[in-house]
Amino acid sequence: MAVVAAHLSNNPRAKSTRDTEKRDRAILAAEKLFAQEGYHGVSMRDIAKEADVGLPLIVYHFETKLNLYREIFEFRKGAIQERLDELSRITDLSAADAVEKIVHAFVAPIIKSHATPDGMYHAQLVVREASDPQEATRGIIAEYFDPTARAFIGALAEALPHASHEYIAWAYLFAVGTLVMSDFDGRMIRISNGKYANRSVAKKISMLTKFVVGGIRAGA
Questions:
Q1: Considering the entire predicted model, what is its pTM?
Q2: Cα–Cα distance measured from residue 156 to residue 216, given in angstroms and rounded to the nearest whole number
Q3: Domain residue extents for the chain
């Protein structure tokens, strides 16, 4: 056993794997704490403790709290890219069902991503970041979410050529608000007295898509 342990400790690939695992653990721990306490309520030491890693490792990988904070959004950008990929597969934006397809691309990847415990922490974190008066100083919303907004606004403008661009832009933000608030399933359990405690991701995606589509079409 000592020989095996010595071999692993001297194996660069094994060490790299362990470092990557600890790095990812630090990102997930930071995401959870930032979601619960906000950017200013969490220290690097808090994150190291939550992740069960040494503070020097956190500093080595990220250097600053802001770098670690930004890395969370880099870590989660797969869901954003999935939305854009689904949007790009809509070949005819003038089709009768184009708005439905656009909204599905907007809704489905995020609902699926947020259906996990870690995903829910990210949903809470995005809400905190978007509503933080200091978010512009960090530039995260502008970097990670604004390009997606422009892509969906552009697609909706093509699908609804008679609607004003101003309306389409507001409709997108209204849809964002609807999507964000739909993440708080705990309240649905309370207001339904537990009747709708069984969460079906597919059903939720379907209902939310229809709701957003109905609102966009009614206003346009």
A1: 0.84
A2: 9
A3: 2-73, 76-219
